[in-house]
Amino acid sequence: MWPWIVVALLAAWFAMGAWQRYKPLPEGLGRAFVERPVEAVRFLADETWYAPSGERHARRRIFDEVMALIGQAERLVVLDMFLFNDFAGAADGQDFRPLSAELTAALVERKAQRPTLEAVVITDPLNTLYGGLEPGHLERLREAGVRVVVTDLTRLRASNPLWSGAWHLGPRWLGNHHDGGWLPNPLGPGQVPLRSYLTLLNFNANHRKTLVVDRGEGWTGLVTSANPHDASSRHGNVALRFEGAAALDLLASERSVASWSGVRLPGPEAPGAAPTPVEGARVQVLTEGAIREALLAAIEASEPGDRLDIAVFYLSHRELIEALVAAQRRGVALRVLLDPNRDAFGIEKGGIPNRPVAHELHAAGVPVRWCATQGEQCHSKLLLRRPAGAAGEAELILGSANFTRRNLDDLNLETSVRLVGPVGTEALIDAAAFFSRRWHSTPQRITSEPFAAHDDASTWQRWRYRIMEATGLSTF
After folding, report:
1. Range of the domain at 128
2. pTM higher than 0.85 for the full model?
């Protein structure tokens, strides 16, 4: 009987892996909301640069704005953040900004000042090591009356079906608990059960980074690539802050995720679409696969002489890479700024996927530079398209989504925002200036390095990247 039992188990494993990879998406995911007239839109960035002596300089704006928005809220705060903890991994002991404690304090303080304020924090179960830890700052939020929603990732499709098929058949049903951990926490202090490691291998995430608050009689939204994570406090990041109906679209995008845990988010519904096309600058909220479609559309819409700038932490999605090569061939003025994929919280990485991808782009004639980093990451996820002349419209897409299969193919929860408007729109000018500062390094302000500085991708690395991207056996 043993051969038949083995065959049956393998068949069940394969069938469950296929179902988890292709099962229907939950309602509300992969949405492109309508374009809304822009109100009070601002581009924000966290930047790092180096002096000739090697001294690090930084300017941080994103979480200062987050704290300020929370500090003025009267009715509602809805915050969705992927990494919200003080874990530092192998980089423990460094002088990081205590973002997780600051954000916790800001929420607790505002809730104490305004007891009727509805405050909801949505986050990824990685912050609890999938139930294997009980973080003190999340308990403090609950005690203060802030509702904490830990996302149910089992509703998502499997990004690593080779493992997830087996996990959904067995280990998933064992649950988890913060008592009885005996293995080291791979991300920080404490011990966790084996079940935390088994869940980690699914590589699913609520990777969103959003904020919605009331402001006066209206609503404000913020979409960013930054996490309130202490060891990420030195990373380079970008954000877009905006007011108006688009903020209610952002709130609507979070209602689906909160509902998985039985939580109904308060606040008004977003208004319907305008009967006539929106003129002037406008904002559009995008989630999951709709982000991929918007990125591809922006690249494919670029014409000879247009300028197309990309600054991203991970670039590996094959459709995007092929679209960029095609844009280069038809005369688009491309510039691609990448993280060297060298540093991950004190652990040295192998340069995958960006170095093999950069080699491919460079061979096709695409100008590529590397962010200058010393332990931190170039964590932005940004595309900026501008017309060849001074007239016409520019387009900016930024947010949580890296340009990878996991982030763009409906496998993670992701949110980005698209700003379209005249080239003279202030936020678009600021985004262009940000990219220019990073791209044009000077001896006095070192921000980036030439392609040759990390042109070391081997044939094995190129094949390894392609296999990891195709199968999901990766963390990118």
Report:
1. 27-250
2. yes
